């Protein structure tokens, strides 16, 4: 039987270690080190080295585990027990010297996320949780907000930057939020967006075109903080389904219906 509490504690240490490396490199980073994996999809030696550091450390915690990692530096795969890793979520922010950017690490057992850690490096904020536990921020339990009205909500999103075929529907939701909420924010890190939903800074977050490593840790943070998570159809295919809505319980159904109505057939 795996002690997920202990695994979570050790994972927090790994995330902070990787975060310290990233923070140090930001002080010296030159844009000439940037590579492109695709349209507007940036990467550098910082992402790759941080991923190597994280994987080497996680192997010591659970030697039998496999990995799903953004930079693909580790090919080993264990279908039951897998780490889902984004060594630097918010690379574009990092490259341009803009906070925020995060380390995101999740552990999946079977089809269930059982550990989630998001470390926002600039503010030194570590969000973490594990199966059947609350969510925490730097040792203090956190909860989603208790707001029940869209009109009193602050919404987070991520702009489409590679896949534009659903842009029109996305912008329709955006327009509704402009008129019916306190406003929208785009941080540039889905991991941070989800962590901020979990601690009540945002009431909801929506985005499409995401990858498992963008959301896996944050999904568990939101759920264990009392929030709700679904895909754009209201289902639960949020880790591998490429789109996500995460919110507090108070506005989830209202916001979900807005997304469903705009993305129907999109």
What does it look like?
- This protein is an alpha+beta fold and 266 residues long.
- The protein folds into 2 domains: 4-142, Fructose-1,6-Bisphosphatase, Chain A, domain 1 (2-Layer Sandwich), CATH 3.30.540; 150-263, D-Maltodextrin-Binding Protein, domain 2, CATH 3.40.190.
- It has 7 helices and 14 strands.
- The chain has helices at residues 4-26, 45-61, 91-96, 167-180, 190-198, 212-224, 252-263, and strands at residues 35-38, 41-43, 66-69, 81-89, 102-109, 112-120, 125-130, 135-137, 140-142, 154-157, 183-185, 204-208, 228-230, 243-247.
- Strands 3-4-5-6-7-8-9 form a 7-stranded mixed β-sheet, sandwiched between helices. Strands 11-10-12-14-13 form a 5-stranded mixed β-sheet, sandwiched between helices.
- A hairpin with a 2-residue loop joins strand 5 (102-109) and strand 6.
- The termini are far apart.
- The model has no long low-confidence stretch (mean pLDDT 91).
Element layout with pairings:
Blueprint: H1 4-26, E1 35-38, E2 41-43, H2 45-61, E3 66-69, E4 81-89, H3 91-96, E5 102-109, E6 112-120, E7 125-130, E8 135-137, E9 140-142, E10 154-157, H4 167-180, E11 183-185, H5 190-198, E12 204-208, H6 212-224, E13 228-230, E14 243-247, H7 252-263
Parallel strand pairs: 3-4, 10-11, 10-12
Antiparallel strand pairs: 1-2, 4-5, 5-6, 6-7, 7-8, 8-9, 12-14, 13-14
Helix pairs in contact: 1-2, 4-7, 5-6
